[in-house]
Structures are given as C-alpha cells and as structure tokens.
Amino acid sequence: RQEYQRRRNRLIEIFDDAGLPYVVPDGAYYLLVNASAVRLPQDYPFPDAIASRGPNFRLAYFFIREFGVSGIPPAEFYCEPHRHLAGDYVRFAFCKTDEGLDAAAVALQKLKRHLQSE
Questions:
Q1: Which long-range contacts (CB under 8 A, 24 or more apart) does 47-55 make?
Q2: What confidence tens digit (pLDDT) does each residue in 12-55 have?
Q3: Which strand ranges, in their side-by-side order, compose the sheet holding 89-93?
C-alpha cells in the first residue's frame, strides 16, 4: 500500500508541475486529470476513429503521440447521457515503475507549451 501511495504522490507531483488539476479517487490506481487547459492544434491529424469519439479521446491520443504518455478516455465508463461530463478528463494510472513515472515527468515538461494561459 505504501508503495502505491508513493507512486500516486509522484504522479500528483508530475501533474502539479505540469499545471493540470486532477481528482484522486479513493481506492483506485489512477488520477483523473482535467486537461481542459490543453490547447489541441486546430489542424492536428487525428484519425477519423479518434476525432469522432469526443474531446477526451482526442486528448488521450494527443498525450500518446506528442509525449509518449498513455491515458484512458474516461467517457467510456459513463452512460451515454452523462458521457459529456468526462469530456475534459484523461485517466492516468500510477501503477507503473519508477522509471516509467520518471520518463513521464520528463516527457510532460513539453506539455506546458500546449497550455492555455489564464
């Protein structure tokens, strides 16, 4: 348990540093990151299968392609009438190795140039 709390805290530090807010669910191995501040380029080449699925699919794809950090679009866990509630969120697991979390920390430094200024 302490090992996963340490890894959770490491992922929290990574997203704090990136400037993205998150939700820490009780009893889960992930953070639910609010990525609404991420500016996706208007002309970004999303495959049709991704573009048609909604904003959090585009966000998850962007994180994988641009930063090599994979997340899950949480809208898949919502029923159709509530799916829009997950539109700005991406789910990131912290049940990873320390090396994987360290690599994510370095890769997500590049995210800052894609954030909307407040």
A1: 54/83, 54/84, 54/87, 55/87, 55/88
A2: 999 999 999 999 988 889 999 999 999 999 999 999 999 999 89
A3: 22-23, 30-34, 89-93
Residue with tokens 């909307």: 116
Q: How confident is the model at residue 116 (pLDDT cuts 50, 70, 90)?
A: confident
The reported pTM is: 0.90
For the stretch 106-114, contacts whose Cβ atoms lie closer than 8 Å and that sit 24 or more positions apart, written own/partner, are: 107/67, 107/68, 107/69, 108/14, 108/15, 108/17, 108/18, 108/67, 108/69, 109/17, 109/18, 110/66, 110/67, 111/18, 111/20, 111/38, 111/67, 112/18, 112/19, 114/38, 114/39, 114/40, 114/66
Specify the amino acid at residue 103: A
Two tokens, residue 47: 């495959």
CA dist., res. 18 & res. 77, Å (int): 26
